[in-house]
Amino acid sequence: MESERKIKTPKFIALTVEEFVRLIICIVFDVVEFAIPILLSPLVGDAVDIIGFWAGILMFGWVGCLSILELVPMADYFPIFLVTWAVWYYRKKRREKRELEKIQKKWM
């Protein structure tokens, strides 16, 4: 019996403009703290982190609450805004997949 080969398609991440813009904003929030050293100071840096927190809430809803971790001391070295974006993106794609499966079940 001849074994069938399964051809796996390469996985690419195709982002919409909205997703890409949100990703860029998160990268900017994470990088700006390293680019401008005064933003790592306690008072000024926390002000930027609070602005980033509110931006995360506005962009990602309740998932944006993860960006509150920026206020934890020494957490500025971890790309928290990028992690927040990744969690939001994963949840969004999972929800879209479930909705698509639900629509497909209706048609079958």
Textual characterization of the structure:
The chain contains 3 helices and no strands. With 108 residues, the chain is mainly α. Helix 1 runs antiparallel to helix 2 and helix 1 (17-35) runs antiparallel to helix 3. The two termini are 32 Å apart.
Structural class: mainly alpha
Q: Strand content of the residues, in percent?
A: under 5%
Q: Output the helix-strand order.
A: HHH
Could you give the count of β-strands? 0
- Stretches with pLDDT under 50, minimum 5 residues: none
Domain tally: 1
Largest sheet: none
Number of helices: 3
Features:
108 residues, mainly alpha, 3 helices, 0% strand
Structure, briefly:
With 108 residues, this protein is an all-alpha fold. The protein has one domain (18-107).
Write the layout of secondary structure elements.
Blueprint: H1 17-35, H2 42-60, H3 80-107
